[in-house]
Amino acid sequence: MSKKIRVMLAEDHSVVRSAFTALLTREADIEVVGEVADTTTLLEMVDKLKPDVLILDAHMPGGKVIFTARQLGEQQPNMRILVLSAYERSEYIVGLVRAGVAGYVLKHDSSDMLVQAVRTVAAGEEWLSPRVADILIKAMRNYDERPAAKLTSREVEVLSLMAKGHKNDDIAEILVITPFTVKNHVRRIFRKLGVDTRVDAVLYAIEHELDRV
Fold first, then answer.
1. Are β-strands 103-106 and 80-85 bridged in parallel, bridged antiparallel, or unpaired?
2. CB 9 within 8 A of CB 21
3. 13-24: per-residue pLDDT in tens?
4. What is the DSSP letter of 1?
C-alpha cells in the first residue's frame, strides 16, 4: 500500500475545520494528522507533526499569514502549503504565491477540487483554482514595473519597515524620527497607493517586493 498523504489543517472556524477533516479522511490516500485554530502554535505543531501538506486559511488569527507562510517555507522546505481562502483580491493571492505557497484554493470551490489540489501539491506540482489563475494573469498584465516611483525614498523605507511587521513607534526609533512624522508618512503612503488600511499597504509592499528593501 502506498504511503498516505499526511495533511494538517490550519483553520480558525471549527465547523469548517470539521467539515474539511471529514471530507479528507474519506479519501483512502489522505490522512489528517493534526488541526490548529490560530497561528500562535502553528510553527510548533508543524515541526512536531511534519505533514506533507499544510492547508492554511488565508486569514488565521494570531499572526500575518503571508509572513507565516514564508517562515514555514524556510523552516519546512519539504512541506507543501495549500492556501484556502474566501478572498479573491490580487494582493492576497500575489503576496501568498510570492511567499512560496504551492497552491491556492477558494472556499467556494467544489470539495472534489480541494481533494485534487491536495494530491497535486503533495506530488510536487502547483495548484491554482481557475478563478485565482485568472486573477493572477490580470495582475501580471496590469503590473507596473516601477510601482514605487511615486513614493519618496523615505516613504519606501517606512513602507518596507511596515511590511516587516514594525509598528509606528518602532519605525520612528529605527529611522530616528518622531512617531508623528511616521504617522504623516503612513498617511501619505495610503493616499499615494490608494489604500485605506495598513494591511492593504503591507500587501502592496509584499506584492512589489518592497518588504525585501
1. parallel
2. yes
3. 889 899 999 999
4. -
Reported as a single tens digit per residue, the pLDDT across 80-107 is 999 998 877 777 787 788 788 999 999 8
Q: Which grid coordinates belong to 27?
A: 479519501
| Number of domains observed in the structure of the chain | 2
Q: Which residues pair with 80 in a beta bridge?
A: 53
Report helix, strand or coil for 180: helix
- Compute the residue count for the chain: 213
User: Structural domain of residue 157, as residue ranges?
Assistant: 153-212
Nearest residue to 82 via CA among 102, 110, 65: 102
Q: Measured between alpha carbons, how far is 198 from 53 in angstroms, rounded to an integer?
A: 30
Domain assignment present for residue 146? The answer is: no
Biggest distance spanned by C-alpha atoms of the chain? 64
Q: Where are the beta strands (DSSP E) in the chain?
A: 5-10, 30-36, 53-57, 80-85, 103-106, 127-128
Cα R_g (the chain), whole angstroms: 19
The position carrying cell 523605507 is: 157
Indicate the residue among 141, 173, 190 that finishes a domain: 141
- The DSSP line for 108-135 is TS-HHHHHHHHHHHHTT--EE-HHHHHH
